[in-house]
């Protein structure tokens, strides 16, 4: 059985490829023409070079596939609305056209907890709770893309599944690399409101297990699922533990309100110069508010749970950091 994965060379995509190969699936992976996909070349993955913003480069990409996993997107906390619209809304429209043309029966969309709207305590929602726009481009375009997927599925008669992960951690994750880089920077990385809120982490191995279950079980048809590990680890603990692995630490403290206001101002200035803002509303909203979600639905319908615990996840991150340090030393 063949499946298509957009973003196959990304952090989540590579882990999903490995898991699906273990389950005897044939993988067709979309990569950008200029992308370095050396890591994928070690796997039995059919490489398709194309660009989700260029429909011509996608023609026929979904032919013969039974599932499309749409993971590719602009996954960062900075950028203009137009950039996020192109990489999330337009990209989803284009891959949906190919899904429909090839009559693929199942479309799995990687959304985010951010689609619920950041900048507020979420109130431990389940998937039936209403969500709202927040004015943050990544959040709002993910929300609009969810609606697009549902509408197209209803119109053209294919099944969909929407996955809303929380903060994805693991070796090479942005939630590992970025905090360490910030902690080691000149200005450091402060805790927000003392780091008291749950970090709402999901290990990448646990996440792709959820993707697999949701995409292959009938209980996942036309459903949306939150995926968050049950670790109950605060931001203070996670950033401190991460810092210890990298011989650094978080420094200082900032209130959520201050971080949100600074993010709003610095984003406008940074976007003018097309550079990353040092503080963002998305980062403030994820770290400085209670963003826990209820995963009962995934547990009961899919039998999903956190197979990798926090200690094992941190051990894997430590091993990866040591390997990266050794590689850097050998190249010096």
CATH superfamily of the domain at 2-170 and 200-229 and 293-307: NAD(P)-binding Rossmann-like Domain
What is the CATH architecture assignment of the domain at 2-170 and 200-229 and 293-307?
3-Layer(aba) Sandwich
Count of helix runs: 10
CATH domain class of the domain at 2-170 and 200-229 and 293-307: Alpha Beta
Q: Give a quick account of the main beta sheet: strands, pairing sense, barrel closure.
A: 7 strands, parallel
SSE order, one letter for each helix or strand: EHEEEHEHEEHEEHEHEHHHH
In total, the number of strands is 11
Q: Kindly, what is the distance between the CA atoms of the first and last residues, rounded to a whole number of angstroms? A: 44 Å
Structural class by helix and strand composition? alpha/beta
The share of residues in helices is 40-55%
Per CATH, what is the topology of the domain at 2-170 and 200-229 and 293-307?
Answer: Rossmann fold
Mean pLDDT level: 96
Could you name the key traits of this structure?
two-stranded parallel sheet, 332 residues, globular, single chain, Rossmann fold, 42% helix, seven-stranded parallel sheet, alpha/beta
